[in-house]
Structure formats: structure tokens, C-alpha cells
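Saturday, quiet lab. Running sequence design on the C-alpha cells for the scaffold JK sent over.
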């Protein structure tokens, strides 16, 4: 809960005119009090359920950096929500939105990067520059984490959805066919748009944060594909591709050409 005003230390002090005035607590004192209440407490089952989690163990299953971004993002979201209820004002939602953006970008990288490097090693992520060819084209097999943006994934999946569907079919997962990759890409594209708004200079409205969270955590209808879970959960498909590669079924990509 948001601490009441009485929770903060208020002292009387004498001003220059000889009259006593209340001393306003410092920002550090206020943050310390928040730290003891809203920030440090564990999230309840009902609060976790709002983000698609049944229990805290599901959050703890993610890597440490993703887990940290998720937990701080959820807590700041709930804190900002309570503040807005008391003040009738919405803060810039980027304060917590950026943490969810980091979480989903890291999740996508952890799930997809290795598999895509294996199956599409020579795919050109960035063309060469300069007439002399001083800067060579950047291929997927050599790409760094910074190049795996949400925008890049959405473009790549749009181009390669048929090839990706074929890889999954050969690996024994026909449910992840071309149509599935198309639906996943569309949801990712929406997430990318909100991510860009969140990370730019203008204020990030609360309504846009809700759209961002919907793409990351919520189930959505996906035509005859049925229901598509939030990107945070559906991204495990990339891990299935990794398992296929590591299991020796590398012939799945034999017919794939750029």
C-alpha cells in the first residue's frame, strides 16, 4: 500500500521570521519509506495473475536479468496505479514500461538468437556500406545482442515465416506453421510499435502501456490458430528450435536458402 502522510517524519523548525514551520521530508527519506512498504513487499497471487503468472515460481524461472526487469516493472506499475488513484493523475508510463521492454527484448534474444544463427547463418542483417566495401555486410551468425531488436525480429519473421514453419514441421512441431509465425509476427510488430513510443522523448501515455502489456502478457485471438499467448510465453518456441538443433536434427534446414 501507499504509505500515509503520517508515515513520513515531519519536524518543526524555526524560519528566518521567527515563526515555526513544518520541515518537509527529503526525497531520500520518502524513497526510504516507499522502500519499506510498496517496493520491497512480495507480490500477491492476485497481482501476479494480472500479468499472466500463477505464482512467483513462474517469474523466478526466467534468467536473473529478465526476472529483475519483470519484478521491478510490475511493482512500479502497481505503485504508479495506486498513486494515480489517490491523485487522479497518471504519471508518464515509461517509468515502468521501459522495464517490460527490456524484459521482452532479452527474452526474445535468449530464446531465438542461437537457433536463428544456426539455421540462417548467412542472412544479412545489415548491408555493407561505402563504395570501397570497407564495412562488410553483417551476417546473422556474427550479430551482437544489440542488433536483435524487436523491429528486426518482426521484419525477419515476416520474410521467413514459411521457412520457419518448415523447420518446425520437420522438427515434429507442425502446430508452429506459417500461419502461426504470421500471427506471432503481427503481435510482435504491435509490441515493437509501443516499445518505440515508450523509449522516445515524448510522454508515454498509460493507455499505450496497457497495449504494450497486452502484447507481452495476455492471450489474444489469432484466427484459426486459436489463442496466442503473450509474447513472453510464446517466445519459448525459439527454445524448441534450439532443442531441435542440439538434438542433432539439423537436416531441418537443408532446403532453406536466403
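Result came back. Writing it out in full:
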Amino acid at each position: 500500500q501507499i504509505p500515509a502522510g503520517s508515515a513520513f517524519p515531519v519536524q518543526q523548525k524555526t524560519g528566518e521570521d521567527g515563526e515555526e514551520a513544518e520541515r518537509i521530508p527529503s526525497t531520500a527519506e520518502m524513497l526510504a519509506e516507499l522502500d519499506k512498504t510498496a517496493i520491497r513487499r512480495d507480490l500477491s497471487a492476485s497481482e501476479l495473475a494480472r500479468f499472466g503468472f500463477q505464482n512467483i515460481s513462474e517469474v523466478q524461472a526466467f534468467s536473473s536479468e529478465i526476472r529483475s526487469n519483470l519484478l521491478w516493472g510490475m511493482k512500479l506499475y502497481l505503485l504508479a496505479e495506486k498513486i494515480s488513484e489517490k491523485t487522479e493523475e497518471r504519471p508518464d508510463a515509461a517509468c515502468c514500461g521501459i522495464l517490460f521492454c527490456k524484459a521482452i527484448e532479452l527474452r526474445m534474444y535468449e530464446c531465438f538468437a542461437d537457433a536463428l544463427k544456426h539455421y540462417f547463418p548467412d542472412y544479412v542483417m545489415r548491408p555493407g556500406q561505402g563504395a570501397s566495401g570497407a564495412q562488410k555486410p553483417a551476417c546473422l551468425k556474427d550479430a551482437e545482442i544489440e542488433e536483435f531488436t524487436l523491429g528486426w525480429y518482426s521484419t525477419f519473421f515476416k520474410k521467413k515465416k514459411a521457412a520457419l514453419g518448415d523447420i518446425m514441421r520437420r522438427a515434429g512441431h507442425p502446430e508452429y506453421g506459417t500461419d502461426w509465425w504470421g500471427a506471432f509476427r503481427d503481435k510482435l510488430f504491435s509490441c515493437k510499435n509501443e516499445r518505440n513510443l515508450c523509449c522516445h522523448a515524448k510522454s508515454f501515455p498509460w493507455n499505450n502501456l496497457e497495449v504494450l502489456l497486452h502484447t507481452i502478457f495476455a492471450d489474444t485471438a489469432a484466427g484459426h490458430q486459436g489463442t496466442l499467448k503473450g509474447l513472453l510465453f510464446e517466445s519459448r518456441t525459439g527454445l524448441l528450435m534450439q532443442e531441435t538443433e542440439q538434438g542433432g536434427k539439423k537436416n531441418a534446414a537443408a532446403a532453406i536458402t536466403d
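Notes for JK: Confidence is low (pLDDT under 50) at residues 1-16, 248-258. The beta strands are 11-14, 20-23, 124-126, 138-139, 220-221, 227-228. Ask whether to fix the surface positions before the next round.
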